[in-house]
Amino acid sequence: MEIHQALTRSKTICNLLPRHEQGRVFAAEGYTHSSGLPGVCIATSSPGANNLVSGLADALMDHNVPLITITSQVPRRMIRNDAFQATPIVEVTRSVTKHNYLILDVDDIPRVVKEAFFIANSGRAGSH
């Protein structure tokens, strides 16, 4: 919620709130088609992230669209422990994305975001 609230207050980022994650990823893909810039979308962990999969596959396999997707994750101690809403989204999306990151250290976020945009804009376009 904190990131969503910060984005709604941004004067430079346009934050749209579709009612479903699948709509969110396809809206980001549409943004890319209309602007030429990478689309970005955010979803919660597990069910929310899983709802992005069709859009990620479409972006990579059907349209070669540069797309950045950010999902939340359960607490580190719960990763790979069959915790509630702890789908291994990196593994789930590996075959339908160009690249994946599992960030375990908050200090890595600026570097990973920069790399994600570089990768999205390099070579064959596609989601990650």
UniProtKB/TrEMBL annotation:
Residue intervals of the Thiamine pyrophosphate enzyme N-terminal TPP-binding domain: 3-86
Give the highest taxon in the source lineage: Eukaryota
Task: Give the InterPro entries listed for this entry.
Answer: THDP-binding, Thiamin_PyroP_enz_TPP-bd_dom, TPP_enz
Q: Entry's Pfam families?
A: TPP_enzyme_N
Cellular component per GO, a single term:
acetolactate synthase complex
One GO biological process from the UniProt record?
L-valine biosynthetic process
Q: Which GO terms describe its molecular function?
A: acetolactate synthase activity; flavin adenine dinucleotide binding; thiamine pyrophosphate binding
Q: Which PANTHER family match?
A: ACETOLACTATE SYNTHASE, THIAMINE PYROPHOSPHATE ENZYMES
Which family does the entry's similarity section mention? Belongs to the TPP enzyme family.
Full protein name: Acetolactate synthase
Which organism is this entry from?
Answer: Trifolium medium
